[in-house]
UniProtKB/TrEMBL annotation:
It comes from Puniceibacterium antarcticum. CDD domains: PLDc_unchar6. This is Phospholipase D-like domain-containing protein. InterPro entries: PLD-like_cat.
Length: 312
């Protein structure tokens, strides 16, 4: 399945669980884990096991988060396990599982850009080899306790003082200059209704709906936000983007459509099949929608200006 759809595939799998969910990946990031847990039904009879590698160097390099311990312990009937030699990626819900290359991170699952090229294949747990592998895995894991978490945290702190952080495609930071996503949904005012499910493909132009879903996957807003919380969340994510920061800098003195299109051209993914002019038109709508008090359009000139009130 295409990389940007892997996250949806995983969410669909775990949302069907009735008895047990097993999440296995060497690298697990908090946001991705929380998103998966939110999709799992809350039921007294459903148990969740999460297995990760959790080496100190993984914490130092940013490919795995210590905070996943709290995320798991906050969920009823959930347990975090550690296997320091883990390399497999395996996700099971009852008798179905996904097996492949994808870690439990935003970039691996298509929720953050740039997205990794990954693979997950759905298999039936009736296969004896899969059952035997899972049994072997769980029998060789160590249950994570507060004491073990603190021990790994101390080891990671000591290691961080000894060597620099290594870069990895699984490291995710909003201020990372490689986070070069640019919104593509042409109707930002409809994004919240797509998020809540009020709008679907039957009520929107198909391409606009697909772009809205893509943008939401990348933005990753938690479930259950009010419209005000949603707007604040998206605005915060937008203002951290390198492309928006460039536009903000240019707009202090006014930036024309032609200038802005040239400015953002390098951020456009070729697979999106959108021109710099159209991409700027969309980004401008987003900035006007999510920062309504900060930007105005010079009447008759289509020049975006920041920081002053303009009359018609």
């Amino acid at each position: 399945m295409a990389g940007e759809m892997l996250g949806d595939q995983l969410l669909e799998l775990v949302s069907s669980a009735k008895e047990r969910v097993v999440l296995v990946a060497p690298f697990i990031k908090v946001d991705a884990l929380q998103r998966v847990l939110d999709a799992i039904p809350i039921s007294a009879g459903l148990h969740i096991d999460c297995v990760t590698r959790w080496r100190p160097e993984d914490i130092v390099d940013g490919v795995c988060d210590l905070e996943i311990f709290e995320v798991i312990t906050d969920r009823e009937n959930a347990q975090l396990w550690r296997h320091p030699n883990l390399h497999a990626k395996f996700f099971r819900a009852d008798q179905s599982c996904l097996l492949g290359s994808s870690n439990l991170t935003g970039r691996a699952l298509g929720w953050r850009l740039p997205t990794n090229l990954e693979l997950l294949v759905q298999l039936d747990m009736n296969l004896h080899e899969l059952q035997a592998w899972e049994t072997s895995l769980m029998s060789s894991c160590v249950s994570v306790t507060v004491e073990l978490r603190d021990q790994i945290a101390h080891q990671a702190a000591d290691l961080a003082a000894q060597r620099p952080k290594k870069t990895s495609i699984d490291v995710e930071h909003d201020d990372d200059p490689t986070f070069r996503w640019i919104p593509l949904c042409p109707s930002p005012e409809r994004l919240f209704k797509v998020y809540t499910g009020e709008l679907d493909e039957a009520k929107m132009v198909r391409s606009a709906f697909e772009f809205a879903q893509r943008d939401l996957r990348t933005l990753g807003p938690p479930k259950g936000y009010s419209e005000e919380q949603f707007l604040e969340y998206v605005a915060d994510r937008l203002q951290k983007l390198e492309v928006v920061q460039k536009v903000v800098s240019a707009s202090s003195s006014g930036v024309s459509d032609t200038q802005a299109a040239d400015l953002i051209a390098e951020y456009i993914d070729a697979s999106s099949m959108i021109s710099p002019t159209d991409a700027w038109r969309i980004l401008k709508r987003w900035m006007m929608h999510f920062f309504p008090a900060q930007y105005r359009i010079e009447v008759g000139q289509e020049i975006l200006v920041r920081g002053r009130t303009l009359s018609s």
